[in-house]
Amino acid sequence: MTTIQVGKLEDLIPAGRHALAHFGKTSFWWRGQARSDWPLVPKVFRCAEFGGPLEHCSVYEFFLRAPTRHAQLPATDRVLEWLFLMQHYGAPTRLLDWTESAAIATYFATLDGHDDQPGALWALSAPILNETHGLGRGTLMPWKPDVLHLAAEAAKPNPARVEKVLGIRGRETDVRMSVQLCAFTLHGTPAPLESLSSSEDYLMKFEIPAATKAQLRITLDAFLGIRATTLFPDLGSLGHHLANTTWVVPGVAPSGAG
Q: What is the pTM of this model?
């Protein structure tokens, strides 16, 4: 798989053109990862062996504890919507987040903590992915039988391994899904997406050099307003932002966050 570098914000335009030409003008999504060597594997499969109790236990623990923590929850029988909500609050699921925005994906590829390593910006054509897995050429809606069947396995103590990865749109159950312009891949196997058959038909990878990450973060914040407080619009991220902001007030010496 050929890797093209994205070192500055302006590089996103030719990167998008490369992806458009590669996928034959089908729609595509983006995903940013802070390290280029990280595989495209959902968190639940990174945390434990496939078929272990982690996924089943996580779903039910989240289901039991969420009502005191979130005002609008899915109906109890909508497993897929619960997975969407779990994914956006960091719980291990069989989903991977994608976004319609290359700039938002770049933000996630440049997060603090891995500035000494190159990041990855992935482009994915969900229509080609789904066609490769025999599901027709299009983005799957969450009520399709193949989607519901694969999602239902997540709630079982001994889930069946389904050798498919599906590109799906999610019903927005939380504001984070809206502001992040999110989409998902739903995985039935722990095999990395890029290792699956014909992956070069539906995947394209760009690399973000380590030396450019900090400046990209600054540019995304200053010029596009892409920062934690806009992508995670809750009081926790707002408080963290305010605690780590240096305020310059005329006639008052700046003080450190306390």
A: 0.84
